[in-house]
UniProtKB/TrEMBL annotation:
S-adenosyl-L-methionine listed as a keyword: no
Alphabetical list of CDD domains matching this protein: CLECT
Record domain C-type lectin: where: 184-299
Name this protein carries in UniProt: Uncharacterized protein LOC109464753
SMART domains for this protein: CLECT
F5/8 type C domain span: 21-171
Record's keyword terms, sorted: Signal
Length: 315
């Protein structure tokens, strides 16, 4: 196991060797709103607050600096709520590089419940280098939780840590409540059991931070068909494809032109009555079952499928 971990630092080689490394994981997109608590009071100087969010802002010029702790306090922590339970396997930290305030040791804890938390150690690390502001990565652990606590248990000079950046690596996807993850497309999907127009559906997806679903290939299309039929196999479900801008020129809702994959139903798209511009699935119960139809955008009796990125992941 140790050898695998060693090789894992060489990225590509590792990915040839072990299944955990098939490129499914990713460094999470940091979010300052993850910070829900931290030790002491942050330093405020010249109108700048050196709060814990400074360690999650993606900026190596800003750092967390807590004021009211003494030397060798050794219990400086940041509590994070990463919004969904994710499976973390690596952590990276950047320090200030001045040695005195550089982290020497830390532990990472997780809690399965929100406040009041129930912290359990996931990993302890005591070989963090001082005197450098370079990013240092640490692996060899695995834990799944929504709540995490990063605890600095020692610094090289005993003084409070100047933590510049903290990064987390996850191998599991996380989806907003009610959404289902689809590995192939690396997207989260939800078939809504509500009826509305095309614009209504776009708005509803947008509320969740997403768009109407985009089944660009057969694998994703089959996944969505199962998903919608699980919700209602008599309903028509909208997805994100229209020819509203130019008749007959079908565009996905992310402005990518429709490619060769286009499983329209028999005699579709027919632009019925000259104004069918929004794509939808025929119901499972229809004779053209589960194929695509061009329908009226304004019809309010259609259900719909939304898609989102995985929580916390870069695109
Ligand atoms: Ca920063
Ligand atoms: Ca049309
Ligand atoms: Ca039609």
């Amino acid at each position: 196991m140790f050898v695998w971990r060693l090789l894992c630092t060489v990225g590509t080689i590792c990915c040839l060797l072990i299944t955990n490394c098939r490129g499914e994981g990713a460094w999470l997109r940091q979010d300052t709103s993850w910070v829900v608590n931290s030790t002491g009071t942050p330093r405020v100087s010249n109108g700048v607050t050196y709060d814990a969010a400074k360690a999650l802002d993606g900026d190596t010029n800003t750092y967390w600096n807590v004021m009211d702790t003494w030397r060798n306090y050794n219990n400086w922590y940041i509590v994070l709520d990463i919004a969904a339970p994710l499976n973390l396997t690596r952590i990276a930290a950047n320090c200030n590089g001045d040695t005195n305030h550089d982290i020497a040791a830390f532990k990472l804890q997780s809690s399965q419940v929100g406040s009041p938390y129930s912290w359990e150690d996931v990993v302890s690390v005591d070989n963090v280098q001082g005197g450098t502001d370079q990013r240092q990565e640490f692996g060899g652990f695995q834990g799944t939780a929504r709540y995490w606590r990063f605890v600095v248990t020692r610094t090289h000079g005993g003084w409070q840590p100047y933590l510049t950046e903290l990064n987390l690596y996850s191998i599991s996807p996380g989806c907003l409540n009610g959404y289902v993850f689809h590995q192939h497309s690396r997207r989260c999907f939800k078939a809504f059991n509500d009826r509305t127009t095309y614009n209504g559906a776009v708005s509803r997806c947008s509320l969740d931070g997403g768009t109407l679903a985009i089944p660009r290939d057969n694998t994703t299309n089959e996944f969505l068909i199962d998903l919608k039929n699980g919700v209602d196999n008599n309903a028509w479900f909208r997805f994100g494809l229209t020819d509203v801008h130019q008749e007959g020129v079908w565009m996905w809702d992310d402005n990518v032109p429709l490619g060769d994959f286009r499983p329209w139903g028999p005699e579709e798209p027919n632009n019925g009555n000259g104004n069918e511009d929004c794509a939808e699935y025929f119901p499972e119960s229809h004779s053209k079952k589960n194929t695509w139809n061009d329908g009226l955008c304004t019809k309010a009796d259609r259900k719909f499928i939304c898609q989102l990125s995985q929580l916390g992941f870069w695109e």
